[in-house]
């Protein structure tokens, strides 16, 4: 059974005859202890406070039966780990400096964009920020300036909290009237009007941050903590 905040994505699941419903990850309408396993992929890094991120993990644990397991993936600050770049960061050379566009009309593309190797993700490392975060633990630092930096596609992160541009190709009326007959250079005013740019909030996790949050809960045990292609991953067991 799947759930998502996006009604459009849930509708796509329905068209494919998958079981899915719309809900909030902080309050899932499923009975406590009724799930053998739960999977949370590319979700928790969209919550803007440490308290809400922890509450989401606690909600996952609530759904599990004793002995049940949960897998969590979040976007990593460290896109270059153990002297190896993530697949996503390597793909910068293939794009030849051009910004990626996300086709929201293709369901498989949307789902792939949310996975670890998805084309909507931006990545990298900042050693100084990484060390600061380790020294201060997993709790988010107070924000003195409410303005968030806007990330540049396929470049290094310079902040744990940032906005990621999403370049959309949507079936708007304007596109229907002109896109079939006209071609505009990438980045031009006309192109931007046809492909609107939206900004999505991310909190990228430093090494140990997700694991520490999970270990702070006394109802679960961390079975495994690992790095996978630009993501920090944890496997939990419900006690």
Please give the structural blueprint:
Blueprint (H helix, E strand, L loop, with lengths): L1 E3 L2 H9 L4 E3 L12 E7 L8 H14 E12 L4 E2 L2 E2 L1 H4 L1 H4 L6 E2 L3 H8 L12 H10 L24 E9 L3 H6 L10 H6 L2 E7 L5 H7 L4 E8 L3 E8 L1
Parallel strand pairs: 1-2, 3-4, 7-8
Antiparallel strand pairs: 4-11, 5-6, 8-9, 10-11
GO molecular function: S-adenosylmethionine-dependent methyltransferase activity; tRNA (5-carboxymethyluridine(34)-5-O)-methyltransferase activity; tRNA binding
Pfam families: Methyltransf_11 (PF08241)
InterPro entries: AlkB_tRNA_MeTrf/Diox, Methyltransf_11, SAM-dependent_MTases_sf
Tags for this model:
about 240 residues, alpha/beta, Rossmann fold, 4-stranded mixed beta sheet, 11 strands, about 30% helix, globular
Radius of gyration: 19 Å
CATH topology of the domain at 37-85 and 155-166 and 195-238: Rossmann fold
Main β-sheet description: 4 strands, mixed
Strand order in the largest sheet: 3-4-11-10
| Average residue pLDDT | 78
Low-confidence stretches: 96-134, 173-186
How far the N terminus sits from the C terminus, by CA atoms, comes to 23 Å
| CATH class (first level) name of the domain at 37-85 and 155-166 and 195-238 | Alpha Beta
Class inferred from helices and paired strands: alpha/beta
In CATH, the homologous superfamily of the domain at 37-85 and 155-166 and 195-238 goes by the name Vaccinia Virus protein VP39
**Can you tell me the overall shape?**
globular
Listing every helix as H and every strand as E from the N terminus to the C terminus, the arrangement reads EHEEHEEEHHEHHEHHEHEE
Helical amount:
25-40%
The number of helices is 9
The percent range for strand residues is 25-35%
- Give the number of DSSP strands: 11
Would you identify the CATH architecture of the domain at 37-85 and 155-166 and 195-238?
3-Layer(aba) Sandwich
């Amino acid at each position: 059974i799947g759930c998502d905040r996006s009604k459009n994505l849930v509708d796509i699941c329905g068209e494919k005859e998958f079981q899915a419903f719309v809900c909030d990850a902080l309050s899932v309408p499923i009975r406590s202890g009724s799930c053998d396993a739960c999977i949370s992929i590319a979700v928790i890094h969209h919550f803007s406070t440490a308290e809400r991120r922890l509450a989401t993990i606690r909600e996952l644990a609530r759904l599990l039966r004793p002995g049940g397991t949960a897998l969590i993936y979040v976007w990593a600050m460290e896109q270059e780990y153990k002297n190896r770049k993530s697949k996503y960061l390597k793909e910068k050379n293939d794009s030849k400096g051009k910004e990626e566009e996300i086709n929201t009309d293709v369901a498989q593309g949307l789902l792939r964009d949310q996975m670890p190797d998805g084309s909507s993700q931006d990545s990298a490392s900042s050693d100084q920020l990484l060390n600061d975060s380790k020294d201060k633990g997993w709790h988010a630092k107070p924000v003195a300036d409410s303005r968030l930096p806007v990330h540049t596609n396929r470049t290094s992160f310079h902040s744990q909290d940032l906005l990621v541009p999403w370049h959309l190709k949507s079936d708007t009326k304007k596109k229907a009237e002109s896109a079939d007959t006209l071609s505009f250079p990438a980045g031009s005013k006309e192109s931007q009007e046809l492909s609107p740019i939206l900004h999505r909030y991310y909190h990228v996790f430093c090494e140990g941050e997700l694991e520490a949050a999970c270990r702070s809960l006394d109802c679960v045990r961390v079975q495994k903590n690992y790095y996978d292609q630009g993501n920090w991953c944890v496997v939990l067991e419900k006690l």
